[in-house]
Each structure stands twice: as C-alpha cells, then as structure tokens.
Design brief:
Blueprint (H helix, E strand, L loop, with lengths): L22 H13 L1 E3 H8 L3 H13 L3 E2 L5 H5 L7 E4 L1 H11 L8 H6 L3 H23 L3 E4 L1 H5 L4 H4 L7 E7 L2 E7 L3 E7 L8 E8 L16 H17 L12 E6 L2 H14 L8 E5 H6 L7 E3 L4 E2 L4
Parallel strand pairs: 8-9, 9-10
Antiparallel strand pairs: 1-3, 2-3, 4-7, 5-6, 7-8, 10-11, 11-12
Length: about 325
C-alpha cells in the first residue's frame, strides 16, 4: 500500500512580512557563524532569553534565509523523538555579517554546503560548541577569568599563518621508529584564559581542544597510521620545537596544554597509557583528560581534569 509522505514543516520556508533584524538577531547570527553549528538550546543559553522568544526569532531568521537548518537532522526526528533544532549560517546571514562587520564573504553557497553535512559532522561540531559555550558561560560567572577567542589569538600570528587556508592547522616533523615522521594537526578549537588578577606577561594560558568520540584507535603498530597516540605525539613534539625555535611557531604561543574530552573513564585510562608510552613511561602534564558526562554536569573551569601523569588539575588553578 502506498503511504503518504510525512510533511516536514520544520524545513519549509515561508517568508513573513514586516521582518526587521534586531540587535538580538545580530548576536544570534554572529554566534552561529562563530561556532559553525548551534542548536536552539545553545542559543538560549548564550543569549539568556526565554525559549519562546528565542524560538520565534530563530524561526524568522530561518524563514528569511539568515540561518539554515541542515537536513541531516531528519534522522533525529525519526529515531527517538524530538531534539533541539540545529542551525547553520545562511546565505543572507553571511551577506549581512559581511556588510555589517566587514567580514570576508567569499563565494560560498552556504545553503548547498549545509545540505551536504552528515550526522557525524553535525554531532562532532555540536560537541565542540557545547564545550566552548559552557566555558564561555563559566568565564562570565568568574570576573577574574577572561576567555581569549581564536580570532584574537590569530590577530597576533605571523602574516604567513594568517594567509593560510586554515590558519589553525600546522605540520610537525620528528624522528621516531627509526625514521622521520610527519603529522598534520588541527585542534577542534584553540583558546586562551586570561587571568586578570595575575601580573601581566604571565597571566595567559593556552589550550588546544580535542573532542574525542572514540572513533579513532588509541594506538597502532606504526606511526604511518592514524591514531590518538600519533596525535598526542604531534602535539608534544610541536611544543618542544616551538620552545627551541620561536621562528617555527605558527602562533604567538610558547606553552600550551591539550584538553581531551572523551567518552568514558576507560577511554581516559587508555589514552593516559598511550601518553606514557612516548614520554619516559611517566606521562606528560601538558595533556589533560575528562569525559563528556563530567563536562555536562560541572563547571569547565573548576572540574578536575586528569593529567597524563595521573594528577588532578583544575583549569582555574
């Protein structure tokens, strides 16, 4: 028997008359562009508005093409109930930001690009956004800690770094297993914490964020294959190289720590074991680990992270 297609009004645009952009709308568009994807719950938390007000403005921004709704969300609605709606930047939103703030528009067709997004990409990107939003809200509650965004850091980077297609990506080479190895690194996010109650010059701390969904093997037999061990080794060798020669640093950063948010405590145990495998059997303090459940239940700045040496560390310390 032929079935009637299910209507998806969430994805049917209907332009509403008398629509005008407000300051709140501008902030919504800016936040979505910054994080690449946000769901409605993220936007409500960032703006501190009621769910009804936020939903009404999000609907209007979607129907007028300032925002988009990736269609890969359809799986969320057919498999296990409703989820917060996910939003991406729309073509008209990109035009608006370029005109209002002078941001580079490029020739990207955001509508087409958003329709190619897969569920795994959406899930991972929302995971990064969830962490960064919780961190931003935590910094707002503590006067002495200021969040330093990626763009602020890149403003002080070399012209060569700024000219790259992805200025947050770099390669590092090192010797291991009897041969020269190379790895490309792209953190999920780069950010800093500025402690305003400490003396200038030593009051900024930098972090590279990795949201680990446990899809990558922890360790493999050789470094030609992708593994989290190889990724950690790349970060470690980068830090050593940047200390030795400031000219090879892509960013105005000497020291940094790598924050890994993973799935379970068992995965953390395995990652720490892999970390110890390349650092004198003791592990490195530059690597900090926690799991998703801890991030969702606590304050990012005050929750205890496990270091590569097994110690517990708080970012606020």
């Amino acid at each position: 028997m032929e079935t009637t297609p299910i209507r998806r009004p969430r994805f049917d645009r209907q332009v509403r008359p008398n629509f005008q952009i407000t300051d709140r709308d501008t902030e919504i568009i800016r936040q979505v562009a910054k994080h690449r994807l946000l769901n409605s719950a993220h936007i409500i938390a960032l703006l501190g508005s009621s769910s009804q007000v936020a939903s009404r403005r999000l609907n209007l921004l979607y129907h007028h093409h300032y925002l988009d709704r990736p269609r890969a969300q359809l799986d969320y609605y057919t498999r296990g109930g409703s989820q917060p709606m996910v939003y991406a930047l729309g073509n008209r939103g990109a035009d608006f930001l370029a005109e209002k703030f002078g941001l580079a528009r490029g020739k990207v067709d955001w509508f087409k690009k958003n329709q190619t997004l897969g569920r795994l990409f959406i899930r991972h990107t929302l995971g990064v956004a969830e962490f960064m939003i919780r961190l931003e809200l935590a910094c707002r509650r503590i006067d002495r800690v200021r969040l330093i965004e990626t763009d602020e850091m890149l403003a002080g980077a070399s012209p060569r770094t700024q000219a790259r297609r992805n200025p947050c990506a770099w390669k590092v080479g090192f010797s291991a297993q009897g041969q020269r190895q190379s790895i490309g690194l792209i953190p999920d996010r780069i950010f800093g914490l500025h402690f305003t109650d400490k003396p200038e010059g030593g009051n900024e701390y930098w972090f590279f964020l990795e949201i680990d969904r446990a899809t990558m093997p922890v360790i493999r037999r050789n470094l030609r294959q992708t593994s989290f061990y190889k990724k950690m080794r790349g970060y470690f060798e980068s830090r050593q190289a940047w200390k030795r020669d400031p000219h090879v640093r892509p960013f105005p950063i000497t020291n940094f720590r790598v924050l890994t948010v993973t799935t379970t405590q068992e995965r953390i145990h395995n990652l720490i074991a892999a970390n110890k495998a390349f650092y004198q059997g003791q592990g490195s303090k530059i690597f900090l680990f926690t799991d998703q459940a801890a991030c969702l239940s606590g304050n990012i700045l005050t929750l205890p992270w496990q270091s590569g040496t097994g110690d517990q560390v708080r970012l606020i310390d």
